[in-house]
Amino acid sequence: MLAAQSTPDKEFEQLIVAFCCNWCSYAGADLAGTARRSYPANIKIIRVPCSCRVNPTFILRAFLRGADGVIIAGCHPGDCHYTSGNYFARRRMTLLMSMLSFLGVDKARLRVEWVSAAEGNKFAEVMTSFAETIKALGENVKLRDLRCKK
Amino acid sequence: MQKIEQLIKEKARDLLAAGQVTSVIAWQKGEMFYDNAPGYFDNTEELDALVYNAFCAANLSKYLIANTKKDEKTAVFLKPCDTYSLNQLIKDRRVQREQVLVIGIPCAGMVDINKVKAQGLKGIIGITEDGDNLTVETAYGTKQVARAEVLLNKCLACKGSAYAVSDETIGEPMAVKHAPYDRFAVVKELESLSPQERFAFWQEELSKCIRCNACRDICPACSCEQCLFDNPESPLAGKANNNSAEEQLFHIIRAYHVAGRCTDCGECSRVCPQGIRLDLLNRKFIKDINEFYGDYQAGADADTNAPLLSFDVDDVEPGAATKGRE
Ligand code: SF4
Ligand code: SF4
Ligand code: FES
Asked: Please, which of A63, A122, B12, B225 could form a disulfide with B24 given CB 3.0 to 4.6 Å?
């Protein structure tokens, strides 16, 4: 188990899934693009109408299907397009993160960030730093092995 | 309990005979004296099979979901802890309150037959109750056992003798007596381990699962008409003890789906044939909810908002508040 956690010899190709709210961070990603700010290419963005659209099962399933890290980006608290979606999302994600940690999965593999449509730079920074974190953590095998006692 | 059983039978008989209710949900004799099952009674002749003793742990509230869909009134006998589950079902709009006559019945704590056997008793024929003491009749003579020693685990976290919802009650309240018990003790212990140790613990524990789905089926908070684990189109369905990745998430999803609605009735852990500590997952969520958003007991009332259906602008940020050691 410990061995599987350490970075393998060959260059580790991490896969990151980013759930981005249409009204803020998705637009922030656009802005980062037009401003020619680069962010890692192995981040796959999935556009959602609001951060609260992200069912915790989506995240678990992303991990299961091979994601090494999952990030949810929504509007800043108080700025949700639907008034309060991100407040509900915040509670859900807090509990999910705490549970993953309880199961022994590094909680750093899941991140929640508030990024507005005007924050192209912040978007690029957040994604770059998240990619670095995941690179340091290495491949995610734990969730896939939770019930496979070797 | 003998007396209570008599009172329950009389009450059920009166209700059915007078046509006040169409059916009664209570417990009926099982194959063995210790495996009483939920019972559905719709005429007075059947009532001889009705029982109430230390082996009536089954929480009857969930059976009301099916029953209140019919256009009839049902009477149900609920122990104090069971009333929390019913209240949660009412809150989740799964049970129609007007169609249920809730009769609260006292409970002195339910008994775990395996704990009785573990006292070194063989050839057990029957058990008679005398308050805090049980007389166990075996093929080799009788023996006294203290009820407190053989209570079901779930009864160690008893919520008390008050009913969260009831129309009528029968008998005097009883107290469940046992040594002090911290229901979060093991959760705290796990939190203090390293992530690797925690992972090893859960891998060991969850690998025992045979995916019988009993934990889901028994749970009064698990009340969806169509469960995602039964949907063949869902990438999460699966029943056999298979090692595929899809199977890995069952326990997390089950516990998450009842987070904020789980009353900690303990039924899931009680029925798990593999003895998996599902209560630890539920209690982790309960403990987090209490610590992050303030103490909350699901089912204590039928009208306040559940923790995941409400928020506070000053809530903690995800990740900032994780308990466990990193
Ligand atoms: S999850 Fe378990 S303890 Fe919680 S309500 Fe369901 S059966 Fe009861
Ligand atoms: S009752 Fe136990 S064995 Fe059955 S599905 Fe639930 S955890 Fe698995
Ligand atoms: S619309 Fe962006 S978080 Fe709700």
From this structure: B12
Give tens-digit pLDDT for B168-220. Answer: 999 988 988 888 899 999 999 999 999 999 999 998 898 888 888 999 999 99
Contact B35, B271 (CB under 8 A): no
Which of the 8 DSSP states describes residue B317? P
Q: B27 and B168: one domain?
A: yes
Model's pTM, two decimal places? 0.92
Work out whether the CA dihedral B181, B160, B252, A58 comes out positive or negative.
negative
The residue whose CB lies within 8 Å of the most ligand 1 atoms, and thus the one to mutate among B265, B272, B277, B280, is B265
Whether residue A34 is predicted with pLDDT greater than 60 in this model: the reply is yes
Residue pointed to by tokens 């009680």 = B270
- The interaxial angle of helices A120-137 and A25-34, nearest 10 deg, is 100
Domains of chain A: 13-137 (3.40.50.960)
- Report the separation in Å between the CA atom of B58 and the middle of ligand 1, taken as the mean of its atom positions: 12
Residues B83 and B193 both lie in one domain: no
B/e letters for B150-189, b = 16+ CB within 10 Å, e = fewer, are bbbebbbbbbebebbbbeeebeeebebebeeeebbeebee
Our answer on whether the CB atom of B299 is closer than 6 Å to any ligand 1 atom is no
- The tokens for B288 are 């987090």
Sequence-ordered list of residues with C-beta below 8 angstroms from that of B272, at least 6 positions apart, any chain: B214, B215, B278
Domain range for B130 is 113-150
Residues in chain A within 8 Å Cβ distance of B283: none
Task: Report H helices in chain A.
Answer: 2-5, 25-34, 56-64, 85-102, 120-137, 142-145
How many structural domains is chain B composed of? 3
Q: Would you say the CB of residue A24 lies under 6 angstroms from ligand 3?
A: yes
Instruction: Say how many Å lie between the first and final Cα of chain A, rounded.
Output: 10
Q: Render pLDDT for B263-290 as a digit per residue (tens, 0 to 9).
A: 999 999 999 999 999 999 999 999 999 9
| Rounded distance between C-alpha atoms, residue B163 and residue B159, angstroms | 9
Q: Residues B40, B135: one domain?
A: no
